[in-house]
Amino acid sequence: MTKVVILAEKPSQAKAYAEAFKIQEKTKTYIQLKPDDTFPNGATITWGVGHLVELKEPHDYKPEWKRWKLDQLPIVPDRFLEKVSKGKWEQFQAVKKLFQQADVLVNAADVDREGSNIFYSILRLTGVKGKPIQRLWINSLEKDEVRKGFNNLQSNDKDLRLFDEAKARQISDWMVGINASRLFTLLLQKKGYSNHLSIGRVQSPTVYLIYQRHKEIENFVSEPFYQIEGLFQSEKGSYKGLAKIKEKDKAKVQRLMDEHGLKENEAAQGIVKSLDKKTKHKKSPKLHSLSTLQSVANRRWKYTPSQVLKTMQKLYEKRLVSYPRTDCNFITENEFAYLVKNLNSYQETLNVSFKAASLRPNKRYVDSSKVQEHYAIIPTKTVPTQKKLSGLSREERNIYNEVMATTLAMFHTDYVYEETVIFTNVRDLPFKSTGRREVKRGWKELFPKPSKSNQEKEPDLPDVHKGEEVGARLQIKESMTQPPKPYTEGQLINMMKTCGKLMENEEDVEILKEVEGLGTEATRSSIIETIKTQKYIEVKKNNVYVTEKGVMLCEAIEGTLLSSPSMTAKWESYLKKIGNGEASKQMFIKQTSQFIEKLIQETPETIQQVNIRSTGEKKKWNEPIAKCPACSTGSIMDRYKFYACSAYKEGCKVTFPKRLAGKTLTPNMIKTLCEKKRTKVLKGFKGKKPFSTALTLDEDYKIKFDFKEKA
Asked: Keyword annotations for this protein (predicted)?
């Protein structure tokens, strides 16, 4: 009897798989399926909770690597090992037991390189070997798709290559993060910086992109420029036009006026020299990938990229949309066929009605050659009931409607408008006027109308005819050049994706185009969240600004590959080759190691130009907190993970923990203990039950609880 064990990435995914079959038993750690055509002997679905295992930390290899010291760099273990993630031991043990009992294992984690990493990292740590492994590869959690996927399981060859790719990325990111963060932090501390910097292969060049925009805005000097504007009065109404001149020097503009015998604000006569009307058609937008959806949602509702991904994940788990972490804007003929079938139901869901312009696939949207692992984000075959729709949150409803409208738009007619260009001559000086008139809304009917402030509306022009004489009044118009605007979060996602446009090296531009910039579709939103958490950037009214800490980071990494998207581009390009079986994981890790060696040699010199700034962070971990209660020479200092005497080299061994019984000990508490040997009663300690107590310092300078004092 073949025992099949399926690993899902998380409980919600396991539940969605199980609902496609008949359930025999549910427990805290697995779901047992009844035998059926797909699984003649039944099957067991278990799950991770995201990453059940993680790479070991430096001190797990060598205790001395816990302390941040320059002479210990580079930190590169001989072999990279994993451990069970904190708080996930119970689930790991359950998965391990099931893996040991299984005859066949199925990797049913997310269908991307991280899903492969999660499965094989867990498998490696369980020690289970030699069992046949198959891969579930689906784009939707609908019952039909799930059953179809399990009936057509794939071999794990590609999956193993993706695991190599993911592991190479994970190890290299670990090496860069651990070594570069310590290197830059310790060198800046020598110059008086009082906190620590976190540096990452993708997060640092992303901060640098924002810093570059910050410098452009900061260094921008607004200058006046001059144009000649004409206000014209025709029989059917007034309109404006501009002469073809734009100069910083007002005298040049005045000279042109004089050449044509024209004076400001003086009544003159104009004649309509030419009139050109063109009807233009605009196709509906391409189908959404995750990043285009994040951009639209940020522009329309100010949703953060992270919020969009979380909302999409919920809709995916509710079986309403296809796989969210896709970088593709195309579908295949299979998806197109079911969309055509459900067209009327989708229209009812969106509360719209239109006759399809065509039911034949169009290469703009339907192209199998452009679809690799995942197709574009589209609605699934499941058409939600009104009850299910009313149960969606506002964010879910907005995002679902956007996906639905973009999908239906490919069946709708073009947006049609008429563009009019008028040339009006005043004493042989031509003035150009442009206007636009909407003829047919077409696919735009499916979307909410943009607010007036967001509409780039060209004026309606009056109905004039060629040769018509019009009244004219001219003036020299003064305007000021405007600085570039800060990025919004939606624009930042686009910038990360297209930053190749900023590169000067043609080879780098090509690579960045091929790998689609910084990060991947699945990771960009979490990178933005990370640099927010690190306080390198802040978002105000949807605009992204670099902080003082971010400026300091960028000054520190300026000129190194850590500030350049090209390093990330080359890494991603090489990682793709590992995933395709054309390159080696070991070589990639070796090259990362060489990069770190080079960084350690070159950084001490480059760090000299960095200005140490007050970054507004509370922790000043190299400032004295109090005089050491044990020795007369040292002071108690914040050592990042604990408090200790500054005279440790002279032999003073006094240290205090940062956390005690689940409560964080603040510098003020430590100061009081050092100076008064006792604190007041403090709340928030955790034992079997939460408790309150005062703290005292004993003769050996150890912290003790004192329950005598009443709260």
From this structure: DNA-binding, Isomerase, Magnesium, Metal-binding, Topoisomerase
